[in-house]
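URGENT: need a sanity check before tomorrow's submission.

F., can you look over the Fructose-bisphosphate aldolase record below? I want to be sure the sequence and structure line up before it goes out.
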Amino acid sequence: MSKKIRMGRLFNYNSDKTFLLPIDHGITLGPIKGINSYCDTVKLAASGGVDAVIAHKGTIKKLIEENIYGSYSYIMHLSASTALAPYSEKKVLVTQVEEALTYGVDGISIHVNLGGEDEAQMLKDFGYVSNECEKWGIPLLAMMYAKGAENDPNTTSHLIKVAQEMGADIVKISYNGDLANLEDCISNTGIHTVLAGGNYSNNVKELLTRIDQAITYGFSGVAIGRNIFQSNHIQQLAKMISSILNSEETLEACLKKVEELGNDYF
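Structure tokens as predicted:
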């Protein structure tokens, strides 16, 4: 029952869609633009309609200390590695579900890279975290990646299936191909699937069009990080994304606004 209540906080009540803001990049990439001033970033994005923020415990602790919380939720990310390591794709658990609960978060997030020599350990960690989430009644978001999956619908579908079989409630995938190719998999597995925003692109029209297509083909929402927190106008862009996800404005209306303001505005 508690998981159902927490899941309800992660999704928009009317549309049953979710708009996630991952700001967990600091451990991997260091102090990149946008997460240096993460308190301001979260305030602006949340006021634009973000449903949940994904972050590591130190960031969530600071945000709570600064009284930055409200109608949106926090999801604590348990996995980490740095770009400084020779095997940066090996993610390890750096905290536990039980500790995350002491922060009052509504969700847990882990990162799993498949297809490498460390796959077995990451699957083992996935199973452990999934069991703990069931035990404590807290939703689990699995960020699933594999080399080449971004352009391969079969591999991406496999990632979605793994997340569902392992007991995740939400799966985040990165995919650059035709989203129609994933529609059957999303429908058949029944897991909430969210589309990652990927690297910062500075092409707002393409980003909004992609989000609109994702909803058309059965995605439950998006997880947009760098394309939000590296934007020049975080709040305005977040409002556009939220309005498309929740059917408050059409894609065409949003694209018209982008044209009027100019892509460089964002």
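My own read: Residues 85 and 127 are 25 Å apart (CA to CA). The mean pLDDT is 95. If you see anything odd, call me.
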